[in-house]
Amino acid sequence: MRSVRARAALGATVVVAVALIAAGLSVLLLLRSNLIGAADLQAEVTARETASRFALDREPDLSDGEERPLQIVAGNGCVLAASRGLEKISGTGSDQPRAQSCDRGDDSGDGDRDDDRGEDDRNDDEPDPGQIEAGPAAFTSGSATVRGDTASYRFAAVEATRGDDGTTATVYAGAPLATEQGAVETVRDAMLVGLPVLLLVVGSVTWLVTRRALRPVEGIRAEMAAITASADLSRRVPVPGSRDEVARLARTTNETLAALESSEERQRRFVADASHELRSPIASLRTQLEVGAAHPELLDVPGAVEDTVRLQQLAADLLLLARLDAGEKPGLARLDLGALVSEEASQRMSDRIPVMVEAVPGLEVSGSRSQLARVLGNLLDNAQRHAATAVSATVRGDGRQVVLAVADDGAGVPEAERERIFERFVRLDDARTRDDGGAGLGLAIARDVAERHGGSLTVGGAAAGGALFELRLPAAPAGPGPEEGSHDLPSGSRPARRPGPPAPDGRP
Description:
Elements: H1 4-55, E1 70-74, E2 79-82, E3 86-90, H2 111-116, E4 131-132, E5 138-146, E6 149-161, E7 168-176, H3 178-230, H4 245-294, H5 301-325, E8 333-336, H6 337-346, E9 355-359, E10 364-367, H7 369-386, E11 391-398, E12 401-408, H8 442-452, E13 456-461, E14 467-474
Parallel strand pairs: 9-11
Antiparallel strand pairs: 1-2, 1-7, 3-5, 4-6, 5-6, 6-7, 8-10, 11-12, 12-14, 13-14
Helix pairs in contact: 1-3, 4-5, 5-8, 6-7, 7-8
């Protein structure tokens, strides 16, 4: 049963069936209990009335045996009186349907006890009145045959003592259960007839309602199948007008399709831009080699080396971006960010503009040393390229974060372009030559690495008028940290700083 509609209809039918069966049994038991209670009350009233007459030595009403069969049984089991027409009885003190000749000597009667009483305790002129057992009546179920008709009865038993001779007997009075049985059977038959019909209605209604509710889902499925077959991510699934879960599913599906379309567009643009960026240095290198092969004296060895370095660095950037896009997690090594900045700055002492470092010692972060060094190198390269006279790198603590701020006194970044420079292959001055800058991947890589480390990278205005880049990373927890993981770049894959222009960036 693979259909959701079939499973929903079957499930609803089973649940309703169980509920109706349980409710029906409860109703039948309650109805039977109430009717038996009414029969018990009727039998008890008749039994106490007959017991009163017996105690007062009056003739009991033994007529109408079909409606209320009576039986008065002595303590020794002898039947003292029974209803007329009673042919057979069960469930009482005796199975004998008629009165018998009872021997007083065998009776449990109190006549012998009366003979033993002293003369002071007897008063022949004022006989003792009879007594009725004051306790609750006992009830039993049985049957009786009256004039050939057998029926079920509910019997009430009440003890009574006759006053004239002290005979103690039990009065059994019955009330018919035909009404109770008829009512229970009627309700039971009605349930047996109505239950299948009701279940059929419930199953049909559930099937129709589920079919109507799942109709938009089928539309979504069909459109998704068409999108998969055509590979056209610009298409969208229909959104129903309702505000239920299906409508939310359709909207979420469209959002997913939009994200996939955007991702595909970025990937297509990335491949095109990467191919374009690789084509130029490869073509230049080929030209130089061909000229050198034909005219060795004209071979530009420094230019060929520079193009080779640019290719190596671009390939390394593309590889790192691919690994970041694949969701690779950074390492978990603990490192002192201030020490890392000081180490990087010490390698730039001979640059056009040296880096002034101000770092608070002991501020540690967790992550990949090589990737964070790549971020720091990109930020410093970017600042040195655009600075007029000074570049500064500051490391400080800010709550549970460690902040690296790289500032320069250059022209700065226009406020409207401060987010755009973090996009891949974006260079604000498209007219400049590539020798003045890189491929536009440096800041994109820096932000991706920062976000993979749980931090952020933003740009603002520096006090000296240039750009201020702030890298915020979570501070490493107290205690010894794990060794650096296997998520760093392999040894030797990080390209060395080229002697020519600095690493690529996103600013003009």
